[in-house]
Design a protein that fits this description.
alpha/beta, 33% helix, two-stranded antiparallel ribbon, 5-stranded mixed beta sheet, 182 residues, single chain, Peroxisomal Thiolase, Chain A, domain 1, 6 helices
Length: 182
């Protein structure tokens, strides 16, 4: 389902933001991207795995420290299962089983060029409010999708770290990690 929207994030040096009394929601602690050119519309798990591993390495965090993943989650059988596999490969099975995942795209529709910005905002607000947004309209969950995808109802959860994924046609993959400021 297509959606329409736009979003804007203001990135600012911590000291400048602090000096002007800005509300600081979080910090970007890592990002990563890959381009695998696997197939225009049939994704591979390798590119997203690589992007998430790069993001984790850049952040200096351990996989177990990720509390929430805002999945790219377009609600396609091939894409969603590939992303679940990629999360398991990037973070490891144990860490993947402990985190919460949702696809906010299930509520907004696919916003195309605005998707990554809006989903980053959802991730930041999820951290700020300690609330995992739901993946709505799940009726028949694939048995291979055995992680906590927060089906149909959001939930409160204390968290410090969120990862947001944005994957595109042709194998462009990006991930970013947001962390609460102490």
């Amino acid at each position: 389902v297509m959606g329409e929207g736009s979003g804007m994030l203001i990135l600012e040096d911590y000291e400048f933001a602090k000096a002007r009394g800005a509300r600081i929601y979080c910090e970007i602690t890592g990002y990563g991207f890959s381009s695998d050119a696997h197939h225009v519309t049939s994704p591979s798990s390798e590119g997203p795995t690589r992007a998430m591993k790069m993001t984790l390495k850049d952040s200096g965090l351990a996989p177990e420290e990720i509390d929430y993943v805002n999945a790219h989650g377009t609600s396609t059988p091939v894409g969603d299962l590939n992303e679940i596999r990629a999360i398991k490969m990037a973070l490891g099975e144990k860490a993947a089983q402990q985190l919460s995942i949702s696809s906010t795209k299930s509520m907004t529709g696919h916003l195309l060029g605005a998707a990554a910005a809006i989903e980053a905002i959802f991730s930041i607000k999820a951290l700020h409010h300690n609330f995992i947004p739901p993946t709505i309209n799940i009726e028949n969950l694939d048995p291979e999708c055995d992680l906590d995808v927060t089906p149909n109802t959001g939930k409160s959860k204390e968290m410090r770290v969120a990862m947001s994924n944005a994957f595109g046609f042709g194998g462009t993959n990006a991930s970013i990690i947001f962390q609460k400021i102490d």
